[in-house]
Amino acid sequence: MQNKCVYIFLSIFFLFSCAEKGKDFSRDKNVIRLPEKVTIQEVNLSSVASGLKYVALETNDSVLVSSITKIMYENGRIVLVDKDHNCFLFDEDGRFVSKVGRKGNGPNEYMYIRSIDIIPDRNVLFTYDHMLQKLLFYDLEKGDVVNVYKMPNIQEKDEERGVDIRSILYLFNGYYYVDVVSWFDLSFKGIVFKIEDDIDIDKQYHLDVKYPKTPKSLSLTHEVGIMFRGESELRCYKHISDTIFSIDNNLNLYSAYVFKMGKYKATYSYMFDKVHNMEMKYVFPVNIMESSNYLFIEYFFGNHAPEPFEYIHVNDRGEKGIAINRKGYCLWDKSTGESIFLKQPIKGKPGFKNDLDGGAIIWPHYISRNKEIVAFCDADKFQETLTDPSNSPPFVSALIQKVQPDDNPVVIIGKLK
Questions:
Q1: 383-415: pLDDT as tens digits
Q2: Alpha carbon separation from 228 to 75, 126, 287 (Å, rounded)
């Protein structure tokens, strides 16, 4: 029996200036407003989370993790991908379970992991291999391959726009959402598909709000989407837009939140070619996560960064260089619409001050469906990220002694309020 992927194409074409033009957002709690003057303040971790657990990932000669690029935690399993596109599976206590899949050109192998996701109710995880254009499903208990699906060539389906799959996340009831970018226009696009027995295109539909014709460009950065989960729905946001869209249980897209950037709003031409544009006068979101009560937003602040700092950047070839972090870290309160910008507890260490145990400074890398905040710290940086190492509880002090600089990272998991 062949594998089937039923596709539903979604497109929203919009004016860059805003979705729902003309609406008064002054009292709307779904508006994420960037204040004209951004002030920072120290924010305690206890205001958003409790009950931290530190997990030192097992290290041995066969389990060496390079820099983590993706991490997830569901059903008591820690799944991570490193910069070399290796995927690892650990249990909730950090014991190594297996290496997920194998790199290569074979039927059950992968070359380049662009995205991963976990389906908790089926206890499986899947990876999307961008180079070989396929989805690989694995058992979450042992990491064994359970299914492989070849993705159709979307480029052939829409040659004029030159589309490309960027990432895939699970929706519900066997449906999946795909973030798609175009090389030739600024349309907001997504694909919803359902896996069945063989591959087929089901239907295509559009939600249109016209915008001026744009020049063709090979720059894709304006279109790469940010996908994250709300309490019960998947959210998607494009850098060129001011709107976070949500996908409801009927597969409809609707406006969930709207950014109002004020004087910091990037111009249309800047966002269209920002990969080549060295101006640093605009602000825009680059990462978003959501809990029941908050959005955790990372903004690129350019020259307006409240606390820029230098750090060592390592590229895919292992080459090191000095880079500057120009981000601002924001806690947006969903009940009040207030934006709180976090002051670094230690210079160069952004996140929440850890008043729970004096341990690691925390900023989320993942939020689980079980309402847990998940972060990680490289072993050689663990001690310097501690809020107050002299007053750390015994289990944190023991971890400081246990973890060696060349060990695998430490994962921190806490319950969100």
A1: 888 877 777 778 888 888 888 889 999 999 999
A2: 18, 16, 9
410-416 β-sheet, strand order:
49-56, 410-416, 372-377, 366-367
175 is written with which tokens?
A: 């449906």
Strands 87-91 and 96-100: antiparallel
Is 82:66 a contact under the CB 8 Å cutoff? yes
Confidence of residue 145 (pLDDT cuts 50, 70, 90): very high
Residue 143 sits in a domain whose CATH number is: 2.120.10.30
Confidence check: pLDDT of 220 > 60: no
Per-residue model confidence (pLDDT) at position 182: 66
Q: How deeply is 247 buried, as exposed, middle or buried, from its count of CB atoms within 10 A (0-12, 13-18, 19+)? A: buried
Count of the separate structural domains present in the chain: 1
**Residue whose pair of structure tokens reads 């269209």 in the numeric block:** 272
The pLDDT value recorded for residue 201 is: 43
HSE-up of 248 (CA within 13 Å, CB side)?
Answer: 6
Q: Which two tokens stand for residue 277?
A: 């544009």
Query: Rounded CA gap, 206 and 320, in Å?
Result: 45
Residue-wise pLDDT for 304-357, tens only, equals: 999 999 988 877 666 788 999 999 999 999 999 999 999 999 999 999 999 998
The pair of structure tokens assigned to 320 is: 């090191």
Q: Judge whether 270 and 261 are in contact, CB under 8 Å.
A: no
pLDDT digits (tens, 9 = 90+) for 4-15: 666 666 654 444
| pLDDT at residue 239, as a whole number | 76
Order of strands, sheet of 253-260, starting from the edge strand that comes earlier in the sequence: 31-33, 253-260, 243-247, 234-238, 225-229
The parent domain of residue 407 ranges over: 4-416
- For residues 326, 332, 337, 340, the Cα torsion angle rounded to the nearest 10 degrees is -60
Q: Rounded to 5 degrees, what are φ and ψ at 304?
A: -95, 5
In 3D, which of 241, 230, 149 has the Cα closest to residue 190? 241
Q: Which residue has the tokens 């998947």?
A: 234
